[in-house]
């Protein structure tokens, strides 16, 4: 039997979900909580296999409850069941330790199946949540051009911003003029600019150098 803890501030929601899950041959509802504070207490007391967690509740919301439960019990498997799909709810809930994210508009059968899959270590996410996470991952993996520069190339870009010539840069860094030219060429290539002036403008626009 998969032991489940229900957490929702609406009694009618708890009654409906509890009745449906209890009718399943492999699921047992071992407790119900009307807010996050009670949820933390019952989670540590019963150690359920899966917790169905509402987000917006009085006393303590679901995000903080999830954070506290996973902090005290890292093995906890929590399914967020909410009406909200905005970024202010999705990301904090997942970062707090929620395993899966479902909507209250989901069919009862889908929630029961999510309980089973989460119990077996899978993560069940609403399609919209999956899309949000993929988009966020892509944003995080996109690197700005100057982030590709080596420490030496960044140093040379800073000196270029000071208006120093290649020879002056070579003298200051105690390297050969030919080496400076190679570094400058690499900087221009990585920043995808045509000349030193454009490179300096890029560095200024990115806040790397001051006017």
UniProtKB/TrEMBL annotation:
The keyword Lyase does not apply. GO terms for molecular function: DNA binding. SUPFAM superfamilies: C-terminal effector domain of the bipartite response regulators, CheY-like. GO terms for biological process: phosphorelay signal transduction system; regulation of DNA-templated transcription. Keywords: DNA-binding, Phosphoprotein, Transcription, Transcription regulation. InterPro entries: CheY-like_superfamily, NreC/VraR/RcsB-like_REC, Sig_transdc_resp-reg_C-effctor, Sig_transdc_resp-reg_receiver, Tscrpt_reg_LuxR_C, WalR-like. Residues 3-119 form the Response regulatory domain. It holds the Pfam family GerE. PROSITE patterns: HTH_LUXR_1 (PS00622), HTH_LUXR_2 (PS50043), RESPONSE_REGULATORY (PS50110). This is DNA-binding response regulator. It comes from Fictibacillus aquaticus.
């Amino acid at each position: 039997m998969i032991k489940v803890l229900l957490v929702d501030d609406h009694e009618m929601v708890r009654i409906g979900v509890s009745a449906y899950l209890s009718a399943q041959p492999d699921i047992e509802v071992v407790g119900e909580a009307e807010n996050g504070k009670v949820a933390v207490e019952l989670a540590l007391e019963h150690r359920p296999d899966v917790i169905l967690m509402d987000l917006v509740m009085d006393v303590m919301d679901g995000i903080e409850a999830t954070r506290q439960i996973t902090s005290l019990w890292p093995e906890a498997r929590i399914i967020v069941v909410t009406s909200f799909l905005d970024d202010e709810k999705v990301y904090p809930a997942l970062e707090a330790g929620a395993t899966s994210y479902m909507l209250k508009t989901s069919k009862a059968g889908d929630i029961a199946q999510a309980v089973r899959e989460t119990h077996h270590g899978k993560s069940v996410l609403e399609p919209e949540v999956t899309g949000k996470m993929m988009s966020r991952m892509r944003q995080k993996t996109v690197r700005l051009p100057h982030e590709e520069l080596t420490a030496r190339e960044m140093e040379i870009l800073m000196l270029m911003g000071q208006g120093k010539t290649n020879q002056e840069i070579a003298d200051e860094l105690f390297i050969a003029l030919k080496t400076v030219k190679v570094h400058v060429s690499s900087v221009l290539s990585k920043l995808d600019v045509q000349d030193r002036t454009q490179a300096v403008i890029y560095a200024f626009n990115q806040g790397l150098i001051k006017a």
